[in-house]
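Quick one:
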Amino acid sequence: IIKQLVDRMECIQEIIAYKKQNGIPILQPEQEKKQEDNLKQKLGDNVFEEEILNIFKYIVKNSRKIQAKALFNYNIFLIGFMGAGKSTIARRAAAELGFVYVDTGAIYRTLGLLACRQGVAPDDAAAVTALLPDADIRLRYGSDGLQHMYLGGEDVTESIRRPEISKYASSVSAIPAVRAFLLNMQRDLARTHDVIMDGRDIGTVVLPAADVKIFLTASAEDRARRRHAELAAKGLPDCYETVLADIIERDRKDTTRAAAPLRQAEDAIAVDTTGLSLQESFDALLETIRRKLGQ
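Output:
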């Protein structure tokens, strides 16, 4: 029996190949329960029954993880309206799950900052595209574990959060050449890490086979209140009415743009955080992810 358990560990790669070829889900707890019941019957009155069962459970538990990691890294995709809390709660969920959080919006914001500094109109597709060959945009993770964006070697993580750069980011991200330019950067991160990634075309273009797709939303008024408080905390006060008007206009542009318009994918799970606190929103997202992954 012990040898059978050892053999199970040694043939994990063969199991993975077979499951991948035949489209069989990796995690199948009901099958593991059946195997455990069969093992109990075989053991009968074996004096080492408890010890052997404990070994079996340990191997099963860890082989599930090994199978999942060997086959692919988990890719979780979030999309949603501006101010719905994607970045904040996705970052917390990534930390809770041990994943890497990739804020793709920050990548587009960095390119928007470049256009702003170069005096290029963000909706001038030709001029923005001309900036791409020499654009030195890098994503790194600091000692604090947070994502930092670099432009030409300069850490611009805080600079890209200014309201005017948000408008630049919205415009440059609608340019097909820009999205194609940044595609490999995003895919490379997903290939080498367990990631929670947000962005409007992550689930359809960048990571079409993402394990979990979530559409995060909240009412415009709720999002305006959150954004207003966030700006005030950063020393960038703006009146609530202005913030609300900006969000409504951003929603209009994001949902009607020609390139990658904002919409919920057919296979995405909707999570509405209207009226929820930050902790409640986080709990709702984490529960949805774990339920989908079968954890």
